């Protein structure tokens, strides 16, 4: 077990900052860090030990370094967010060659490939396991709890191909203090709730306390995008009832589509007359049958529909009006990046088709950041409770292996 982890392994520069600040105010290092955490619980940036020059421009997130892994990394939506919170990614896995290209360009390193071929011992110890696992509900649905958990190495027997069970096997082997998972909202209702029951019970049977909720990203980005977020706390570390709440939607005015549109998008994103006529005709026929709409013209003052991985096909779910004289246009890949909350500094290094697919599959980093902030508060609570903020990881967590 590595001893230099997280919230646990305080790196030298942070340690010396803590030493200097605590000496300056004549308090112990522990008192100083607890004070940082208390202030952080009141929200955001904080002022410590009021007095001249006593402003510490750090949030608890930035002040508590931690390690995480990003499984089914896609283009690193989790990594973008958790990095902003002070986390260091110690391992990632993604097998799609185009997503790997994007990851390499954004984060400077190649992820591991097929997660089913990765051995648990090759994954470094970490504090948070993040995973936007692909949903394969049909194979999950066929797996009863008995079948999946009833025998030694049950997950492996349950369904060779099912990636949720690959993930569960890694959680079982690595026992991260926290697992942070994301999936489509339909996971909850699939097969009358049975699929979700299998997933939740599997995580609970691994001795994790499971919190789950559906969050609409529309409070952070101008897009209706409902996803289930699942936060699992290791019961052996955090006990039966760690205090945790999902973030409330920000108070700030809702983002508008207008804010993320490019000023002068190239003509190639304008639909051809032929496609536009087809889409209108298709929508008319469907409306007549009472089947709702096909395409969607987005209101610049409002939010868009959900960006899907198939947006590259015709882009019909989110179209931007260009007035009466021209057919509407689809979003540019850069606009899709913004719609998902990825920064403009990230270059787009793949074809438009791949870029649309990658953004449509990704998690929204600002939402993960908001959830991650709450997760770090729970970490802070745990560390304060143990009174061991600056001790070694194992001492801090009082971690016992089953
Ligand atoms: C829903 S996407 C996750 C998106 C990611 N959270 C992001 O922010 O971009 C699932 C990803 O899992 C990857 N994947 C599927 N099976 C895999 C496997 N066996 N090994 C590694 N990656 C896999 C897919 O290529 C896809 O990029």
Summarize the structure.
This protein is of the alpha/beta class and 402 residues long. 39% of the residues lie in helices and 11% in strands.
What does this structure look like?
There is one protein chain. This protein is α/β, with parallel strands linked by helices and about 400 residues long. The chain folds into 2 domains: about 65-250 and about 360-365, 3-Layer(aba) Sandwich (Rossmann fold), CATH 3.40.50; about 255-350, DNA Methylase, subunit A, domain 2 (DNA Methylase, Chain A, domain 2, Alpha-Beta Complex), CATH 3.90.120.10. About 40% of the residues lie in helices and about 10% in strands. A 6-stranded mixed β-sheet has the order 2-1-3-4-6-5, with helices on both faces. It has a two-stranded antiparallel sheet with strand order 7-8. Helix 1 crosses helix 2. About 40% of the residues are buried. Residues about 1-5, about 45-60, about 145-160 and about 390-400 have low confidence and may be disordered. S-adenosylmethionine (SAM) binds near residues 73, 75 and 96.
How would you describe this structure in keywords?
402 residues; alpha/beta; Rossmann fold; DNA Methylase, Chain A, domain 2; 2 domains; 17 helices; 8 strands; disordered N terminus; binds S-adenosylmethionine
């Amino acid at each position: 077990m590595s001893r230099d982890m997280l919230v646990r392994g305080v790196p030298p520069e942070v340690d010396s900052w803590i030493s200097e600040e605590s000496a300056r105010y004549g308090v112990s290092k522990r008192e100083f860090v607890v004070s940082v955490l208390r202030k952080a619980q009141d929200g955001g940036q904080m002022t410590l030990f009021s007095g001249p020059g006593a402003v510490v421009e750090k949030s608890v997130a930035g002040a508590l370094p931690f390690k995480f892994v990003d499984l089914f990394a896609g283009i690193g939506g989790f990594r973008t967010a958790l990095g902003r919170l002070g986390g260091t990614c110690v391992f990632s896995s993604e097998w799609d060659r185009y997503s790997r290209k994007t990851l390499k360009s954004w984060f400077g390193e190649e992820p591991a490939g097929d997660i089913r071929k990765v051995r648990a011992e090759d994954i470094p110890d970490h504090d948070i396991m993040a995973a936007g696992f692909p949903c394969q509900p049909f194979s999950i649905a066929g797996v009863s709890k008995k079948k999946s958990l009833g025998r030694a190495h049950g997950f492996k027997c349950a369904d060779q191909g099912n990636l949720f069970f690959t993930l569960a096997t890694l959680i079982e082997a690595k026992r991260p203090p926290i697992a942070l998972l994301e999936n489509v909202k339909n996971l909850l209702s699939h097969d009358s709730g049975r699929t979700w029951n299998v997933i939740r019970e599997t995580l609970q049977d691994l001795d994790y306390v499971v919190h789950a909720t559906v969050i609409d990203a529309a409070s952070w980005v101008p897009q209706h995008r409902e996803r289930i977020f699942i936060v699992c706390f290791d019961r052996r570390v955090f006990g039966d009832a760690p205090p945790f709440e999902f973030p409330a939607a920000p108070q700030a005015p809702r983002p508008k589509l207008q804010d993320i549109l490019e000023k002068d998008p190239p003509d190639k994103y304008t639909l051809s007359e032929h496609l536009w006529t087809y889409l209108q005709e298709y929508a008319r026929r469907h409306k007549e049958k009472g089947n709702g709409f096909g395409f969607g013209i987005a209101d610049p003052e409002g939010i868009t529909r959900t960006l899907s991985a198939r947006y590259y096909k015709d882009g019909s779910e989110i179209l931007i009006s260009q007035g009466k004289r021209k057919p509407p246009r689809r979003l540019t890949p850069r606009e899709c990046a913004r719609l998902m909350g990825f920064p403009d500094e990230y270059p787009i290094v793949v074809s438009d088709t791949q870029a649309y697919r990658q953004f449509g599959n990704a998690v929204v980093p600002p939402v993960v950041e908001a959830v991650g902030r709450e997760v770090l508060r729970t970490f802070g609570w745990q560390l304060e409770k143990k009174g061991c903020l600056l001790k070694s990881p194992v001492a801090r967590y009082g971690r016992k292996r089953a």
